[in-house]
């Protein structure tokens, strides 16, 4: 197996199974992180309008002088732009930030519509979220129109459960190319993965290391496998995701980690069984759950 492995999307395009995440990568360091990643051989960068750093991410991409067609760039539609008329302007704003003519993939970031407007997360005086009454199918149908503009090569969704995917699929003319969700051995979501596979939807694993300050990466079970392969704990988690056929997009702004995360290992059956055992008899654990930060249930 090689980290340069790719998957084929239902559009016919390819997506690298390994990419760089950029959430929480601060503006003053993210440009260098993307540069180091591209120098190390990464060809897939995961961005989002809400991360507030598309401009710096785009600068690093453009300054790399890597032919655009060799790169896979994803960005995401934020929750305040779910009305049909807001969708194209939102993509155009991201392209302007990135300084790119197109992205390879445009994702609906969450199946949740916040009040339209310039405030990313609108709240009332009592601090309660203000939602926009727009169904996810309406937003998705507006996203379908983006493909013919050439401003994105593919469209997809993020944080979608089977139930929400079924809702979209019932009206979709274009099957989402990707569903980007939280996946790691503590939240393997096997059923969702099987469902996506059956519908031709590629899956990208976010927070593959368990996100910031995660206890997952420090677990003894992970360390034991890493020691056996003479590698780092992160590489075990990355290999787990790739061996399930998902793209994996670990974030780092630390040069040494960006480089070491790119190193390839192959887990064996014993390792995979040990990782599977992490959730046996236990409820899956999410590190990125809107129940905690917005007080809403998204995945049910
Ligand atoms: P992650 O990639 O699981 O973990 C990132 C954390 O791990 C950072 O604190 C990073 O620290 C650290 N790290 C990286 N490599 C390491 C290594 N080799 N050893 C030890 N620690 C290491 O978390 P994430 O950022 O939540 O998820 C990855 C990407 O997925 C995001 O950046 C974003 O692009 C995407 N994402 C998407 C959504 C969505 O809703 N679609 C949600 C969450 C994430 P340093 O940076 O300090 O090195």
From TrEMBL:
SUPFAM superfamilies, A to Z? NAD(P)-linked oxidoreductase (SSF51430)
A Gene Ontology molecular function term of the record: oxidoreductase activity
What species is given as this protein's source? Linnemannia schmuckeri
The signal peptide annotation in the UniProt record is none
Residues binding substrate: 109
Name of the protein in question: NADP-dependent oxidoreductase domain-containing protein
> What Pfam families would the database entry show?
Aldo_ket_red (PF00248)
Q: Which UniProt keywords apply?
A: Oxidoreductase
Tell me which CDD domains the record gives. Answer: AKR_AKR1-5-like (cd19071)
Report the transmembrane regions from the record.
Answer: none
Gene3D superfamilies, alphabetized: NADP-dependent oxidoreductase domain
Q: Which family does it belong to?
A: Belongs to the aldo/keto reductase family.
Write out the catalytic residues in the record. Answer: 51
Q: Which domain of life does the protein's organism represent?
A: Eukaryota
Q: NADP-dependent oxidoreductase domain: which residues?
A: 19-278
Q: Where is this site: Lowers pKa of active site Tyr?
A: 76
Q: Which InterPro entries match?
A: AKR, Aldo/ket_reductase_CS, NAD(P)_OxRdtase_dom_sf, NADP_OxRdtase_dom
């Amino acid at each position: 197996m090689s980290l340069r492995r790719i998957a084929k999307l239902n559009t016919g395009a390819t997506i690298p199974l390994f990419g760089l995440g950029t959430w929480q990568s601060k503006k003053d360091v993210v440009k260098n992180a993307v540069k180091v990643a591209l120098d190390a051989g990464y060809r897939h960068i995961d961005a989002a309008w809400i991360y507030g750093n598309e401009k710096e991410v785009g600068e690093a991409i453009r300054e790399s002088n890597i032919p655009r067609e060799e790169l896979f760039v994803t960005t995401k539609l934020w929750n305040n732009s779910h009305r049909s008329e807001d969708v194209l302007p939102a993509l155009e704003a991201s392209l302007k930030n990135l300084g790119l003519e197109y992205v390879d993939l445009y994702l609906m970031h969450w199946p949740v519509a916040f009040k339209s407007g310039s405030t990313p997360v609108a709240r009332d005086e009592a601090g309660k979220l203000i939602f926009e009454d727009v169904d996810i199918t309406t937003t998705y149908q507006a996203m379908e129109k983006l493909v013919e503009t050439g401003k994105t090569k593919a469209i997809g969704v993020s944080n979608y459960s089977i139930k929400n995917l079924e809702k979209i699929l019932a009206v979709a003319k274009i099957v989402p190319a990707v569903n980007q969700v939280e996946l790691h051995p503590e939240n393997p979501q096997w059923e969702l993965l099987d469902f996506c596979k059956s519908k031709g939807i590629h899956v990208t694993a976010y927070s593959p290391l368990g996100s910031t300050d995660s206890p997952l990466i420090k677990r003894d079970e992970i360390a034991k496998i890493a020691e056996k392969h003479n590698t780092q704990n992160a590489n075990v988690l990355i290999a787990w995701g790739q061996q399930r056929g998902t793209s994996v997009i670990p974030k780092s702004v630390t040069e040494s980690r960006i480089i070491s995360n790119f190193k390839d290992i192959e887990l064996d059956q014993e390792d995979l069984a040990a990782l599977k055992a992490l959730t046996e008899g236990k409820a899956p654990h999410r590190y990125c759950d809107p129940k905690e930060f917005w007080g809403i249930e998204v995945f049910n």
